[in-house]
Specification:
Blueprint: H1 2-5, E1 25-31, E2 37-46, H2 58-84, E3 88-96, E4 105-114, H3 118-135, H4 139-155, H5 164-177, H6 184-192, H7 198-212, E5 219-225, H8 232-258
Parallel strand pairs: 1-5
Antiparallel strand pairs: 2-4, 2-5, 3-4
Helix pairs in contact: 2-3, 2-4, 2-7, 3-7, 3-8, 4-7
Amino acid sequence: MLSFMIPSSEPVPRKGYVWRENPEVITEICRSQVSGIARVSAVWRLERTPRNLMNTVQPAIQEKYMTMAGFVARERLLKHFRNAGIPVASVDAVYEGGSGTLGDSRFSVAVTLSDDRIKEALTALAGTVASIDSNGISADEAERAAREFKSMIASGIHSRYTGNRQYINRCVSAFIYNTPLSSGKEIKKFHESRELSPEMESSLVHSVASASLDPDKNLALGCSSDTAAISSDSLKYIFASAWNRRRNAVNLHSSIMHS
């Protein structure tokens, strides 16, 4: 009965996906409920693949090489903290593509460790991602990362469509944004059909990562601890300083090697 009492109105047209670039770094500082533990993170928002290219191989390529960049970032960070004698609770580096979501893609790196090591964690995180952005990865790293990605695809771990809501979002995304509805089996078959050398895989990771990761925009730096003993300005300064030091060191090494 209530439906008859609601006046009719013109339907509001829905807008498709719109990319909104953030020209500066934002920060998110919050208090956690876990005493003595901090989680430091860097999250890049990335523009999703254009609608007219969603049913091509581009989304699969983007996902593979950004995921591989995450594997290498995690491996380098774990090695750094191990060599420095700094215990960590976790190191995560994850790429979330646009297929199956209704918004931007994301690349995030996060470290959980003692809250008196926030500066060291942020410095290591920035330096690690900056080195991948500026200089890429080695053939050995690419080979290990490609093997890990292949194992992930084979086991189906990459599939995030486990519930009704996820399936609905994926179908809506396919309808509005033309995202592919390929099954895990089809995706696996596509990747297995591409046998590239470690050197080529290394070059592609560098190319995709350097086009996606910017230290000055579309980036959110986060810190969660029970003390919140760091300011927004400090987060930005520590991250930018570490990134620039690493990038300058990489550029100097490259200049010496080519002189």
